[in-house]
Specification:
about 650 residues; three-stranded mixed beta sheet; 15 helices; disordered C terminus
C-alpha cells in the first residue's frame, strides 16, 4: 500500500528534524486508561454527528452523479477554507518555504483500501496508546454507522504495560503463540487451559510424532517468561540475588535442564547450559556471583552488566541461552528494559496440566529463593554431565532431590505429578525377565552437534547431526560377578545405582545414515562409538570401527511379572524402537572381543540395539538352558534372547 501513496509530495524535512516515533520508557508511571465510553464518538462530537452524516451523504451523492449511476447532486460540498495561520501555533499551519525543513507536517495517515471484496483499514504508527485506541474507536464507529465490516491491519499498538497482547506468529513447522502475562495462579490456569482448548478446536496440536513413531513435542518450545507487571515490579531487578539463586540451583541440578527439554540439546542447541557453552564459564560465574549483593536494593542495570556476557551460547548469542536476559534491562533501548527473564529449556508438553505443573514448579522455586537465597558452590560436572545425566535414571534421581528440597520448604510437592513428563521424555521401549533378573530398555538423551558449513542453493548451511541416539539399559536383581550383559557380542559395562542388584548403562548407536554427519564413512551396521555408563568417563576417546554381521534390533515385550521361560525376541528392521515379535536367527559368536572392565568404555554396534546372549554364568556352566549351545570359546550362542 505504501508504494501507491504520494509520499514524494510531502514537504522535505532534514534528518535531524525528522519526527521519529520512539518506544516509551516502561519504567515511567502511567495513568490508568480512560474507560471506553469516554473515548467513543470523539470524532463525531468534535464535528457533530449530524453534520458529519450530512457531509458523508452529499459525498456519496456527488460520486454517483459524476459516475452516471445516480441522480444529479442536489447539494455541493462546502468548499475548503483557505489555509490560514493558527493564532496559537502559527508555525504548524504555514506552508513551508523552499529548502525549509517542515517537521510540523503530519507524515502518517490512515489508509483504507478495498481488497478481495473487503475493506481493509491500515493503521498508522502512533506514539501513545491512547491515540491508537481513539483511532480504533473512530474506525469502529464509522463501520457501525455505514453497516460495513472492516479488517484492521497495519502497525500494532505501541508497547504499553496497560495493554494485554496475544501474538500469533507462524514459524517453520509450528505456530508460535505469545500469551499475555498472568497476575495470579487462577488466571494462569485459565490462560493455559484456554490456549490448549483453542488449539484443539482449530485442529492444532501441541505434540507430534516422528517418522519412527516416537512421541515428542512440537519443537517450538514452551518458554516460560518471568517478571512483573512493570519493570519496576520485576523481582529480578529488585532482587538480583534471585537470578543468582536460579542459575546456581539449575546448574547443580541438571535434571531441570534435561527433564523438560526438547530433542535438540547440547552445546550448540537453542538453550545450552552455562557449563556446556564455555569451559571456563564456572570460574567466571563464581566471580559474577560474588558481585551480587544479598537482599539489598540495587540499580536495575547491575544485573544486566554482570550476567550479559556470561549467559550466552558458544558464539556469544545472548538470546540462545538457557537463561535469556535480553529483555531484563538492556541499555540499548526501552524494548529491552522490561524486567523479564526467559527460560528456554522447556519443550511444549502434550497436555495443559503438564504445562501447569512446570509453571507451578517455577513459582515454588521463586518463592523459596525469595525467602532463602540459594548459595552453594557450583558443581564442576565436566564430562560427567553428558555421561550421567543423559540417562533417565540419574535425571529422575536428581529431580527427586529437587522435590525433596521443596518439601522441606513446606511446599508439599509430589513427584508423581511429574511422572508424565518422565514417561514422555524417556519412553520405555521394552522389558524382559530371565532367572529373576529384570531388564528394561528406555530411551535416553543424546546431544546433537552442529556440523561445519556446507554450500547449498541458498548459501552456506550448517547441518545438525541427529543420526546418533542413546538408550538406557537397566537391570535389577543381577549379580555382577555371576552374569554379564552383552550387546552385539560386546560386554556392556554396567554402573551400580546404589541399590543392591541394580545396574544401569547407556548404549549409543547410529539410528540412520544422513549424508552429512560425524564419521560419515561408518554405516549403521558398524561400531563407531562407546558405551557411556561410568560417571566421569571421557566419551571423546576414539573407538574402533568394526563391522558387525548381526541383524536388526532385538528386544522383547515381556513384562517383569511373566515367567522366566525364554520367548522370541522382537525385530525392528525399520526402526530401533519398533517392537515386533519374531524368531531371531543369530550367527554363532566366534572369536569374541575381550570384554572390557566396567570402568572403561567399549565399542558398540551402530545399527539397531540388539541385546542377545546376555546372561551366562561362568560359575555354573552345567546349568545352562537347553536352548543354548556353547562353542569352544565359551560364548553362549544363541542363548535365550532378551
Amino acid at each position: 500500500m505504501g508504494l501507491r501513496l504520494p509520499l514524494d509530495s510531502l514537504p522535505w524535512v532534514k534528518a535531524s528534524d525528522y519526527p521519529h516515533i520512539y518506544d516509551q520508557d516502561w519504567m515511567k508511571k502511567l495513568p490508568a486508561l480512560p474507560p471506553r465510553l469516554e473515548r467513543d464518538r470523539q470524532a463525531f462530537l468534535r464535528a457533530g454527528a449530524g453534520d458529519f452524516s450530512r457531509r458523508l451523504e452529499r459525498a456519496f451523492a456527488r460520486h454517483h452523479a459524476d459516475s452516471g449511476h445516480g441522480s444529479p447532486r442536489e447539494q455541493e460540498l462546502p468548499e475548503e477554507e483557505p489555509n490560514q495561520p493558527d493564532p496559537e501555533n502559527p508555525e504548524t499551519s504555514l506552508r513551508p518555504a523552499p529548502q525549509q525543513s517542515a517537521p510540523w507536517i503530519v507524515r502518517t495517515a490512515l489508509c483504507v483500501e478495498p481488497r478481495n471484496g473487503k475493506l481493509h483499514v491500515f493503521m498508522p504508527p502512533v506514539h501513545q496508546l491512547e491515540d491508537y485506541l481513539e483511532l480504533c474507536a473512530a474506525v469502529e464507529e464509522t463501520a457501525d454507522f455505514l453497516n460495513m465490516p472492516v479488517l484492521v491491519e497495519g502497525y500494532a499498538p505501541p508497547a504499553d504495560p496497560r495493554l494485554n497482547v496475544i501474538k500469533v506468529t507462524p514459524d517453520p513447522g509450528v505456530i508460535e503463540v505469545n500469551v499475555h502475562p498472568a497476575h495470579s495462579w487462577t488466571e494462569m490456569v485459565d490462560i493455559t487451559t484456554g490456549l490448549y482448548q483453542d488449539a484443539h478446536q482449530t485442529r492444532l496440536g501441541t505434540e507430534k510424532f516422528m517418522v519412527d513413531g516416537r512421541h515428542s513435542g512440537t519443537g517450538g518450545g514452551n518458554h516460560i517468561v518471568l517478571g512483573g507487571a512493570t519493570p519496576a515490579d520485576s523481582p529480578f531487578l529488585r532482587r538480583p540475588d534471585l537470578l543468582r539463586s536460579l542459575i546456581n540451583y539449575w546448574h547443580n541440578h541438571p535434571s531441570l535442564s534435561y527433564l523438560f527439554s526438547g530433542l535438540f540439546i547440547g552445546p550448540t542447541c537453542q538453550a545450552p547450559r552455562i557449563d556446556e557453552a564455555r569451559n571456563d564459564s564456572l570460574y567466571e560465574m563464581e566471580i559474577a556471583f560474588n558481585q551480587i549483593p544479598n537482599q539489598t536494593p540495587t540499580p536495575p542495570w547491575l544485573v544486566d552488566r554482570i550476567f550479559r556476557h556470561l549467559l550466552t551460547d558458544v558464539s556469544g548469542n545472548t538470546h540462545r541461552s538457557e537463561f535469556c536476559i535480553d529483555k531484563l534491562f538492556d541499555p540499548a533501548g526501552p524494548s529491552g528494559r522490561l524486567g523479564l527473564l526467559e527460560l528456554r529449556s522447556f519443550e511444549m508438553p502434550p497436555h495443559e496440566r503438564m504445562s501447569l505443573t512446570q509453571q507451578l514448579l517455577m513459582r515454588a522455586l521463586i518463592s523459596e529463593f525469595w525467602d532463602k537465597p540459594y548459595r552453594q558452590p557450583l558443581v564442576p560436572w565436566g564430562t560427567e554431565l553428558h555421561d550421567r545425566f543423559m540417562l533417565p535414571h540419574f535425571v529422575w534421581q536428581d529431580f527427586r532431590d529437587v522435590m525433596g528440597d521443596l518439601n522441606l520448604a513446606g511446599m508439599n510437592f509430589d513427584e508423581q505429578w511429574f511422572a508424565p513428563h518422565y514417561e514422555f521424555r524417556f519412553p520405555r521401549h521394552g522389558d524382559a525377565s530371565y532367572r529373576e533378573i529384570q531388564l528394561e530398555l528406555r530411551h535416553a538423551l543424546e546431544p546433537w552437534n552442529v556440523l561445519g558449513e556446507e554450500a547449498a542453493a541458498g548459501g552456506n548451511v550448517r547441518f545438525v547431526d541427529s543420526s546418533v541416539e542413546r538408550v538406557q539399559v537397566k537391570t535389577q536383581g543381577m549379580i555382577g560377578s555371576r552374569y554379564q550383559l552383552l550387546c552385539n557380542g560386546q560386554r556392556v559395562p554396567l554402573h551400580s545405582t546404589g541399590t543392591n542388584g541394580e545396574y544401569v548403562a547407556g548404549v549409543r548407536y547410529r539410528a540412520w545414515q544422513p549424508p552429512s554427519c560425524l564419521h560419515p564413512t561408518i554405516p549403521c551396521k558398524a561400531r563407531s562409538s562407546s558405551i557411556s555408563t561410568t560417571p566421569g568417563t571421557n566419551r571423546s576417546s576414539p573407538a574402533a570401527a568394526i563391522m558387525s554381521p548381526t541383524p536388526a534390533a532385538s528386544v522383547t515385550t515381556r513384562s517383569p511379572s511373566t515367567p522366566t521361560k525364554p520367548k522370541p525376541a522382537a525385530s525392528a528392521a525399520s526402526s530401533p524402537k519398533a517392537i515386533v515379535p519374531v524368531r531371531p536367527t543369530f550367527p554363532p559368536c566366534k572369536n569374541p572381543t575381550p570384554s572390557p572392565s566396567p570402568s572403561t568404555s567399549a565399542p558398540i554396534n551402530k545399527r539397531s540395539v540388539k541385546v542377545s546372549s546376555v546372561f551366562r554364568s561362568p560359575l555354573s556352566r552345567g546349568a545352562e538352558s537347553p536352548e543354548s549351545i556353547r562353542d569352544a570359546s565359551g560364548c553362549v550362542s544363541p542363548a535365550p534372547v532378551l
